[in-house]
Write a sequence for this structure.
């Protein structure tokens, strides 16, 4: 093996670096705080034929309990800046290791808007783009102008515009091609604030109130999330565990014959997206369902929680049982939103 570079740690417990609190030890662990140091450690991995993966805040991960024989890189490249101002919008850049909440606060400070509905999600900018993070009627790709990063095939910098990123629901080129490492993202944001209250819970919250300002929207999302989601600092979870299934309109019509109150949302032509949380909660009654150390959250069954000491295998087995229940009942295969390593 080539000489271990300065800053690499060995035999680090990964359960301390993700909100689900699972994972064995990483043989090598490195915190990248600059683009140069990131390239340096990626070259180290390639020269030594080491498998690697990159984490941010670890808020959307389910990590195997077996020790990882390669390199784990924690993305800590930070910084944000207003790059330019135009008539209707402005461009703000943020490095991949920047907290998404910190980015939102920065955006608000500069009287810009657009991404505020993504408030209070414990992730980084890079991870948000890889996941095409979405919440309360907003998705990250709605505001991405371009993405910079490193292609580890040749360690050269790439710059992709929004179209190059090939965004889709919880998907894009970065999720499919692990050799493209995001280092910086440019967001096109609104100069004038107009609240996005299309999402049902936000619509209800402001039903009898005047048009809210951006701080009131932030306050509303904080309260809504607190009322319906577990505090990841207290109970292990990774937020929404499953993706909302996209089904044909014909299949949707079959379901609506039996469940006329089920919400639905237009997807690509000929398809409809249905909220899997509604299916699990209202139809299957799985809210608060528990087996040993693993269960669905008492307020929302879309979230699987680690009640303390649950292993990857226990969480995986529990999730497979939920997937089987849904398939046996509706003949719909549900996919996991959480990233498994």
């Amino acid at each position: 093996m080539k000489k271990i570079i300065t800053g690499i740690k060995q035999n680090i417990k990964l359960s301390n670096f993700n909100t689900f609190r699972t994972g064995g030890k990483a043989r090598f662990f490195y915190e990248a705080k600059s683009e140069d140091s990131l390239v340096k450690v990626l070259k180290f991995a390639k020269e030594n034929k080491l498998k690697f993966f990159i984490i941010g805040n670890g808020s959307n991960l389910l990590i195997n309990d077996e020790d990882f024989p390669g390199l784990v890189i924690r993305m800590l490249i930070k910084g944000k800046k207003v790059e330019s101002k135009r008539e209707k919008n402005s461009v703000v850049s943020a490095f991949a290791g920047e907290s998404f909440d910190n980015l939102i606060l920065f955006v608000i400070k500069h009287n810009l808007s657009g991404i505020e509905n993504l408030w209070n999600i414990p992730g980084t900018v890079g991870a948000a783009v890889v996941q095409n993070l979405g919440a309360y009627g907003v998705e990250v790709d709605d505001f991405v102008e371009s993405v910079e990063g490193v292609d580890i095939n040749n360690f050269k910098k790439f710059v992709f515009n929004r179209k190059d990123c090939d965004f889709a629901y919880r998907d894009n080129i970065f999720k499919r091609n692990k050799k493209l490492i995001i280092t910086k993202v440019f967001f096109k944001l609104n100069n004038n604030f107009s609240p996005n209250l299309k999402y049902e819970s936000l619509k209800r919250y402001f039903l009898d109130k005047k048009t809210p300002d951006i701080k009131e929207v932030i306050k509303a999302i904080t309260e809504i999330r607190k009322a319906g989601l577990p505090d990841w600092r207290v109970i292990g979870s990774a937020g929404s565990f499953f993706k909302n299934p996209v089904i044909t309109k014909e299949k949707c019509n079959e379901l609506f014959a039996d469940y006329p109150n089920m919400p639905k949302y237009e997807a690509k032509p000929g398809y409809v997206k249905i909220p899997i949380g509604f299916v699990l909660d209202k139809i299957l009654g799985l809210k608060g369902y528990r087996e040993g150390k693993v269960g669905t959250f008492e307020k929302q069954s879309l979230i699987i929680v680690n009640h303390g000491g649950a292993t990857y295998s226990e969480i995986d087995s529990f999730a497979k049982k939920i997937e089987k229940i849904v398939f046996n009942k509706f003949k719909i295969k549900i996919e996991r939103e959480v990233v498994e390593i």
Observations:
- DSSP finds nine helices and 20 strands in the chain.
- The chain has three domains: 9-75, 80-190, 236-340.
- The two ends are 24 Å apart (CA to CA).
- The mean pLDDT is 94.
